[in-house]
Write a structure and sequence with these properties.
- 40% of the residues lie in helices and 17% in strands.
- It is built from 28 helices and 28 strands.
- The chain has an 8-stranded mixed beta sheet, sandwiched between helices. A 5-stranded parallel beta sheet has the order 2-1-3-4-5, with helices on both faces.
Length: 909
Amino acid sequence: MLLFVTFILTIFHYSFSQTTQNINVLLINEENNALAEKSFEVAKEYVRRNPSLGLAVDPIIVVGNRTDAKAFLENVCRKYTDMVSGKKPPHVVLDFTTTGVGSETIKSFTSALGLPTISGSFGQEGDLRQWRGLNSNQTQYLLQVMPPADLLPELIRAIIIKQDITNAAVIFDDFFVMDHKYKSLLFNIPTRHLITPLNSFSKDDIKTQLQSLRELGITNFFVIGSLPTIKKVLNAANEKEYFGRKTAWFALTLDKGNISCQCKNATIVLMQPTPDISSKDRLEKLKTNYNMNGEPEIISAFYFDLSLRAFLAIKSLLDSGKWPKSMEYMGCDDFDGKNTPMRMIDLLTAFKEIKEAPTYAPFFMPNGGAMNGRSYLEFTTNLSAVTIRDGVLIGTKSLGKWISGFSNALNLTNVYMTNYSAPLAYKIVTALQTPFVMKDEQAPKGFKGYCIDLMDEISQILKFDYEISLSPDGKFGAIDESGNWNGIIKELMEKRADIGLSSLSVMAEREDVVDFTIPYYDLVGLAILMKVPQKTSSLFKFLTVLEDDVWFSILAAYFFVSFFMWVFEKWSPYSYRNNRELYKDDDEKREFTLTECLSFCMTSLTPQGGGVAPKNLSGRILVVTWWLFGFTMVSSYCANLAAFLSVSRMDTPIESLDGLSKQYKIQYAPVKQSPTMLYFERMANIESMFYEIWKEMSLNDSLSDVERAGLDVLEYPVSKKYTKMWNAMIEAGMPNTEQEALARVEASKSSQEGFAWITDASDVRYLVMINCDLQKAGNEFSKKPYAIAVQTGSPLKDQFDRVILKLSNDRVLEALKEKWWNDNPEAAQCEKVDESYGVSIQNIGGVFIVTFVAISLVCLTVGLEHWWHIFKKRTVVTSVSQMQPETKTSKLLFTKESDLKISGSNLEI
């Protein structure tokens, strides 16, 4: 009897202590997520078969299409309305949608109507757009836990950081959702990467997709998907012969089992999750007793635990009295956008405090703040190297483990794991500029120059390799009016390159989108390239002082005056010729024959003078007139000769940008769409903006007289130099290419007439170095340093900074400058420009030639005079026998005793 009473009391106590709570659940799922619904059914069965839990679950299940949000929402509202009208409103909404507009629609539905919700959707913090602006109350009952498929890709980030991988392709199948990973997965990591879905399961399509990735320089491949998906990708890679030392393959899957492929010789790093040791028995029990055999088993376990924990959390709130006693539910049609019910339900705390043992791995939930986007299944992933030869798995080597999370590092057995990733290499994008970067087919990388030597030095210190290519448009990088970038900067922003290497100037707008290292080159500005002034020289330049008609006029006057002087001498009764007795006592007697007249007029034009003047008055008047004419001509000639010899020194050269802007003879412009063009355009725009500000101030009627006087608005304080220069550049026509600009400079007639090219000072220095006909005019302006560009947040910046500083301290940078400037074999050997102010032999040498010719003529004249005097003016007797008889008998005259010579039987005179 006592035992019976004890049994009755035990049952009575048990029935009151284990009060069964009926929980109404609205399960919302997607059509392609049947595994989640099956796990929910297992959880419901688990509750039913374990009465000790004190639960009874009454679910309503809604399945919709993730892309048809309208139909999905209508179906959900209809089921929800039926539950409310049937007096069984949902205690909790289990949202098993994964992603897309359907999932966002459900979140909008639950937040608007204030329904306690536990979601298993994909998405990190901030990715759930409809739950971004939750208030403090809503974060207590609108909860999300990330599924394992959303955490596994984070392992890629851990591997890339550990291995310093510089390029990667992430290929995934339909089971994984990567929409929100494109930017966040490898954020602030200097890895050029592509995240792309598997386009097709056709082998040919897969081979085409892999080939396109290889052509982009990808050497590290991460395949995320089921084991069948991985097998198809590996088989395609084997046929393309993409296995070897230069490529690395990583396979991530939630499935159990080994990978297989028809690979000839391949080693793949396989990553698979594994249940915690403490959870294995529970998992096996559920699989055996409750038929939880869905694959992947980690996904089945996740949705099972999420469902069971949700049930228990609601029961906890109901048992503790923390569930609102008068819970009001709003219909879908009653919501007006502003009347969301205020709920005081702390589902978050209740969910965290559940002590139910995990089935696969425990849930991680942060201690403080909202759990959405920060909570997940904290599972362990094994890493192993799988070797396959001729389609047979011949070995598996354990590499380590990884605990799921956002910043968890790898715990590797092989610390470096160097044999399982492609060699460290970076992709460099560049733009040509001599002598910094120049194409050279014979060079190892296809380029040579200052920057290439610099990168070789850096790569030797940091131990990496690199591939270098030109930017698609050949430009450095500028932003257009729409905010779009081009050139090197665009390639870095879109992560198609790791490093931007060239004579790249550090600019404020560029620093907003990429990072720059410390400068590797001195400040470099803009400069003016012009043609060297050509000094015209002529040996007979002294003859060009007077024009030809003047020379002919002088010559005509000379003969005319000489002729009339002879006429006056001949016909004047007072001339020496016609009145010798009158002038017989004069010391100097000179008869002005025609020859004497020519000589007199000639010598009168020299400082020596003409000598004795004619005696007759008419002749003297003519001489005075000739002297006056000669003085005028000689003075004019001397003055003009001095001017001609120094005229080149009087040309004022262009010595600055201001000097260029103030003249009109020389056209000037930069290359179209170049950074130099943008500089002048922006400076002109700034002047225009300043002018508008000044005009606004000057026309402001609200200013008092005192304020207006203080501003002195009638005086415009800013120049219009750049506006004027910009208009002149447009009028001159900007060259389309650097070659066109250089050709226009070389075609200039002189430094005072032609074209000046405004460009980068380093370009100007190099062109002047190799071309003696070019010169740099004035000083540099708008100076900026040259630096190496990397992706924003790239750790390469700090690494390069240290190396560049070391190279500078070791004077390596100075040696590179010496090599590519002072010791450049292409440097021209230009003649030193003579800057003396004396008269050069090139301009006055003709006088010496004339003098030499005159002396030669004089020598010839002396010879003719001698010949004339001896052989023509005197009688020559060869022998006595040749003389006439009368001559023999009459007389024989001898002029000199020395003229008589006896030679044999002949008498010679």
